[in-house]
């Protein structure tokens, strides 16, 4: 169900961008992109390589600064977004190459940088190991994922388990926007399904979600709204049930397949 | 889930099994040497070994933390020389306790110099500290004109030659610092973040950990430990030469790696490093005790290091195969729940 459909509360975008333009040298990577993102809504971002999807994601996560345009969080404009500020604003990104410390356990990865402290010893903050494990287990189970041994180095885990940890890690801190950069690219079928379920659970907690994907089956399975991009411009911004694969492909490639050549 | 005792947990981890292996090796060496030379196991002799290893041991604690965090400092041999001669020279004009402190503080400063360059230039710490290795040695030779510092007051030597409960002061210091390092590395936020940086610096930065602060702190702490080690040595010998600590970095790094710290960062335990330091010291004095040409000690120590890393590599390959097997199972359609 799309959060936009609910009549009770008039939908108000959680995050909004208007007229975002980004140049890399002489190349215009993004051309006046304006989008808004509702709480609880999963937006699929599709497009060919070089369409500007990753650039847009990197602008939201503060890695790139737009040359023109503005970003609004609720009613306030966000200026000079950088990775640190993005984190503080609750914008998190799950990257294609998972950002996990392979040598640490699941709990240590999940709680990295926000370890619960039991007491201080001079300059040292002693980690509350038990609470760290409990918190990590709780975060994982909120996403419907469970692991027996949370201290085993994550390099020994399977791709799907690692994915679950990476997703759980960003959702702990995210309260406005979570971006998934091709979350299922490296996964088998069963783990892909589990990951899509994870994404739906994350969205159900009321944050805005962006998913970059090349797989249209996946896109239609999870997305409430589909945004197609081509050569830096938004060519389609439609509710998933009001569009079709043909239209999405046409907007991605710029080639229309006969019937709606608008 | 089956209940786990502390011992079985330690056995389950790779590091736990490795440390047990080191401990057994130490005991075997002690036993073998004592068959030939029974006095080897006397308390006095064991204390001599402990004293001999305490200088490398103190420096190895800092080096272990550095390498775990994905860094390294090759200039510690020259830091050692510079701190030793500085403390000894100062002791001739200022009270000895102040000279000790000055030597340690100088070490921290030299570490900070390395850290600033490692962070600012963003070149491999190997290259940066290879440069400062030469620079610091050159300074040590210049300030002493190449001669050993003589005429150091008696008081200066009380630290290195002192005993408490019949145990030499440097050994107490190693024991205390090792316990502190163990807790700091394995139970604190700061220690956890060292491991995180050694494992995946990008992920650590993404988690909001301050990499610059960490690099500065860890290099400075390492320098202070090297300074302490140098002050203890100068104090014990009652003199200091600018040629102190040539090859010190290699001995220290060898002990750290033998102790199970991965040179690529992210893995290691203080217990392992301490056991390796003890093992190398035991081999060293054991070979002398049984009358083997001391030059062979180099060969034996080197062989121990090569053997240890070979075993590590084999174990990791096995682990990797296990992981691949898991991944295959997950991908196969038959593996449905």
Q: Can you give a write-up of this model?
A:
The complex is a heterodimer of chains A (262) and B (337). Helix content of chain A is 31%, strand content 27%. Chain A has 8 helices and 12 strands. In chain A, strand 1 and strand 2 form a beta hairpin. The longest helix of chain A has 16 residues, at 189-204. Chain B is mainly alpha-helical and 337 residues long. Chain B has 14 helices and 2 strands, in the order H-H-H-H-H-H-H-E-E-H-H-H-H-H-H-H. A two-stranded antiparallel ribbon of chain B has the order 1-2. In chain B, a hairpin with a 2-residue loop joins strand 1 (163-164) and strand 2. In chain B, helix 3 packs across helix 13. Chain B starts with 5 loop residues before the first helix and ends in a 6-residue tail after the last helix. The A-B interface holds A 83-84, 87, 99-104, 108-109, 112-115, 117, 121, 123-127, 129, 148, 155-160, 188-191 and B 1, 183-184, 187-193, 195-196, 198-200, 202-204, 206-209, 266-267, 319, 322-323, 326-327, 329-331, 333, 335-337.
Largest sheet of chain B: 2 strands, antiparallel
The chain-level structural class of chain A is alpha/beta
| SSE run of chain A | EEEHEEHEHEEHHEHEHEEH
Across the major sheet of chain A, the strand order is 6-9-10-3-11-12
- What structural class do you assign from the helix and strand content of chain B? mainly alpha
End-to-end span of chain A in angstroms? 28 Å
What order do the strands of the largest sheet of chain B run in, or round the barrel if closed?
1-2
**Using DSSP, what is the number of strands of chain B?**
2
Report the portion of residues of chain B in β strands. under 5%
- How much helicity do the residues of chain A have? 25-40%
Kindly state the percentage of residues in helix of chain B: over 70%
Oligomer category? heterodimer
Largest interface: A-B, 34 and 36 residues
Overall mean pLDDT of chain A = 84
Q: What does the radius of gyration of chain A come to?
A: 19 Å
**Poorly predicted ranges of chain B:** 1-8
Characterize the overall form of chain A: globular
């Amino acid at each position: 169900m799309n959060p936009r459909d609910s009549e009770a509360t008039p939908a108000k975008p959680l995050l909004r961008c208007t007229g975002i333009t980004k140049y890399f040298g002489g190349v215009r990577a993004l051309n006046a992109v304006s989008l808004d993102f509702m709480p609880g809504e999963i937006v699929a971002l599709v497009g060919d390589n070089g369409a500007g999807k990753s650039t847009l994601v990197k602008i939201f996560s503060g890695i790139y600064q737009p040359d023109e345009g503005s970003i609004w969080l609720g009613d306030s404009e966000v200026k000079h977004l950088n990775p640190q500020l993005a984190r503080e604003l609750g914008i998190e990104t799950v990257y294609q190459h998972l950002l996990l410390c392979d040598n640490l356990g699941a709990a240590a990865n999940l709680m990295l940088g926000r370890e619960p402290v039991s007491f201080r010893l001079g300059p040292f903050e002693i980690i509350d190991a038990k609470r760290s494990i409990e918190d990590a287990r709780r975060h994982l189970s909120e996403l419907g994922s469970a692991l027996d041994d949370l201290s085993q180095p994550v390099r020994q885990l399977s791709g799907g388990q690692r994915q679950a940890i990476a997703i759980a890690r960003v959702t702990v801190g995210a309260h406005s926007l979570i971006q998934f950069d091709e979350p299922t690219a490296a996964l088998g079928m069963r783990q892909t399904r589990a990951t899509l379920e994870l994404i739906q659970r994350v969205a159900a907690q009321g944050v805005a979600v962006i998913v970059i994907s090349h797989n249209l089956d996946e896109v239609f399975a999870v997305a409430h709204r589909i945004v197609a991009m081509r050569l830096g411009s938004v060519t389609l911004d439609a509710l998933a049930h009001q569009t079709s694969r043909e239209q999405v492909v046409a907007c991605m490639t710029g080639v229309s397949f006969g019937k709606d050549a608008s | 889930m089956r209940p786990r005792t502390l011992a079985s947990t330690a056995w389950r981890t790779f590091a736990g099994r490795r440390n047990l292996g080191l401990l057994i090796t130490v005991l075997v060496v002690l036993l073998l040497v004592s068959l030939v030379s029974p006095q080897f196991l006397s308390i006095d002799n064991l204390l001599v070994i402990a004293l001999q290893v305490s200088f490398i041991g103190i420096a190895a604690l800092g080096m272990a933390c550095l390498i775990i965090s994905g860094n390294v400092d090759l200039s510690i041999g020259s830091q050692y020389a510079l701190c030793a001669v500085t403390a000894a020279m100062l002791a001739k004009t200022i009270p000895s306790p102040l000279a000790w402190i000055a030597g340690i503080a100088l070490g921290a400063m030299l570490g900070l110099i390395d850290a600033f360059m490692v962070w600012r230039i963003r070149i491999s710490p190997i290259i940066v500290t290879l440069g400062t290795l030469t620079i610091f040695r050159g300074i040590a030779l210049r300030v002493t004109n190449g001669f050993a510092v003589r005429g150091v007051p008696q008081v200066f030597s009380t630290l290195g030659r002192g005993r408490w409960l019949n145990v030499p002061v440097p050994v107490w210091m190693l024991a205390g610092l090792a316990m502190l390092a163990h807790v700091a590395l394995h139970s604190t936020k700061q220690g956890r973040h060292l491991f995180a940086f050694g494992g995946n610096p990008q992920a650590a930065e993404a988690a909001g950990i301050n990499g610059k602060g960490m690099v500065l702190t860890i290099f400075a702490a390492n320098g202070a430990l090297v300074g302490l080690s140098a002050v203890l040595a100068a104090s014990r010998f009652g003199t200091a030469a600018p040629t102190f600590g040539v090859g010190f970095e290699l001995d220290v790094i060898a002990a750290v790696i033998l102790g199970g710290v991965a040179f690529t960062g992210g893995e290691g335990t203080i217990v392992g490093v301490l056991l390796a330091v003890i093992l190398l010291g035991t081999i060293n004095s054991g070979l002398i005790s049984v009358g083997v040409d001391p030059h062979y000690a180099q060969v034996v120590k080197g062989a121990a290091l090569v053997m240890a890393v070979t075993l590590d590599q084999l174990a990791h390959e096995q682990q990797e195969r296990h992981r691949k097997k898991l991944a295959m199972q997950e991908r196969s359609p038959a593996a449905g729940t």
